[in-house]
Amino acid sequence: MNTATIIAQEIPDIEKIRRDFPILDTKVNGRPLIYFDNAASTQKPWQVIKAIEHYYTNLNSNVHRGVHYLSQKATDAFEASRRKVASFINAEHDYEVIFTGGTTESINLVAHSFGKQFVKACDTIIISSLEHHSNIVPWQILCEEKNAQLKVIPINEKGELLMDAFKAMLDETVKLVSVNYVSNSLGTINPVREIIELAHSKNIPVMLDAAQAVQHMPVDVQELDVDFLVFSGHKLYGPTGIGVLYGKEKWLNQMPPYQGGGEMIKTVTFEKTTYNELPFKFEAGTPHIEGVICIGAAIDYINEIGLEKIDRYEHELLEYATEKLSEIEGIKFIGTADNKASVVSFNLENIHPYDVGVILDQFGIAVRTGHHCTQPLMDIFAIPGTVRASFAFYNTTVEIDIFVAGVKKAASMLG
To answer: Which domain holds residue 373?
Structure first.
């Protein structure tokens, strides 16, 4: 039995799954699209696309504020989706799920509200060398405003966090640790349970950027005991412009609102405003109703396939791609952690990653090239960027074979 057959056993109905994603029928330069840019954004199944149409043709109305039929139906669908998200990550309470505009807004919400309440001069925030800019810049802004300090967990040459260095950072000045669960650039899966346990031993809360995790593996916030967790809908086979902030009730109740406006209020006078209860305290204004409902549809779709099955299948794709790419002379993998998600980041000797990406596009292959919004990480490796191929459960070994042939072609043309 060959490797491709073994992989196919994990998701035997792969062709049926691929038919759920209409964009995969696209032709690029006369060739079938091979979409390996899933870490940037995933494609959408018919089940999500039809849910968008259903909302606008059957439910379109504002939520939480109307007594009429459409408003009631839209509100029911909206809150049903909140319950789906809470169940998906195993939150203890539905109201610990806050809907935002995406991972970036979720992190900014915590940086603003938690920072306003708990961070003062000479305090410390800890992040890691593997962070996306969205988990760097908000903390830099907070530290500049508060005259606090930002500390960064270093990594080894494989792209793994140096946990002894992290332990040494955990002193009485640290107010929050904010790290990603999975690196978007390298695919490194961080030892988040150990990070949380170490921080909690010093009574320090932890936030996880799970934008690259929830679509690949089961994530249980109660089992992790994490204080905050954030992710985006568009990386979870759902719409853009919708994200989630999970926060433990004890923290969310102590944090001030992020924005003021409708929905987040209980009473308003010109003299004084009292704020609404959770989750509405953090959901000012008309929300992205369609996005909320359709992230629920995306979760339904993923649950139907099964995250455990997805995790195993994508891991097999990662191993297959790594093995085949390793045969190419002059290739250098960036990020070789022992524990990885389905991301391969590499460079070809003396060839700029952008040039490789242009050649691959001619073969209909979509990869990401550049610094992947992790410029400080690229600086550590002293490179301008990488070629990044990121796999999803609708990808196949046949596509990987075509991709590897394309990389070989690029190497011969540009080398």
So the answer is: 3-32+306-414
If asked whether residues 196 and 256 sit together in one domain, one would say: yes
**pLDDT-based confidence at residue 1 (cuts at 50, 70, 90):** very low
**How much is the pLDDT for 115?**
97
**E strand or H helix at 31, and its extent?**
strand 31-32
Kindly report, residue by residue over 326-354, the tens digit of the pLDDT: 999 999 999 999 999 999 999 999 899 99
Q: Do 128 and 220 sit in the same domain of this protein?
A: yes
> Which of 335, 342, 338, 358 minimizes the C-alpha distance to 394?
342
Domain boundary among 304, 324, 350: 304
On the 0-12 / 13-18 / 19+ scale of CB atoms within 10 A, 176 is buried
Nearest CA to 207 out of 176, 236, 167 is that of 176
| pLDDT tier for residue 262 given thresholds of 50, 70 and 90 | confident
Last residue of a domain, one of 304, 324, 349: 304
Cα–Cα distances (Å) from 198 to 155, 255, 379, in that order, read 18, 24, 28
| Beta strands per DSSP E along 65-173 | 97-100, 124-128, 149-153
Looking at the structure, tell me whether residues 27 and 64 fall in a common domain. no
> Do residues 300 and 352 both lie within one domain?
no
Q: Is the dihedral of CA 338, 342, 344, 345 positive or negative?
A: negative
Query: pLDDT-derived band of residue 183, with 50, 70 and 90 as boundaries?
Result: very high
Provide φ and ψ at 280, rounded to 5°: -70, -20
pLDDT of residue 415: 75
Paired residues of 275 in beta bridges: 265
Q: Which helix (H) or strand (E) holds 149?
A: strand 149-153
The reply to whether 134 and 273 lie within a common domain is yes
pLDDT attached to residue 100: 98
Let me know whether 260 and 346 are in one domain: no
Q: What average pLDDT does range 389-415 have in this prediction?
A: 95
315 shares a domain with 297: no
Which CATH number covers residue 274?
Answer: 3.40.640.10
Is 38 within the bounds of a domain? Answer: no
Residues 241 and 350 in one domain: no
In-domain check, residue 96 = yes
Instruction: Work out the number of other CB atoms within 10 angstroms of the CB of residue 265.
Output: 16
Per the model's pLDDT, the better-predicted residue between 274 and 376 turns out to be: 376
Number of neighbours of residue 192 by Cβ within 10 angstroms: 20
Q: Is 143 a catalytic residue?
A: no
**Structure confidence by residue, pLDDT tens digits, 102-113:** 999 999 999 999
Alpha carbons within 13 angstroms on the beta-carbon side of residue 367 total 34
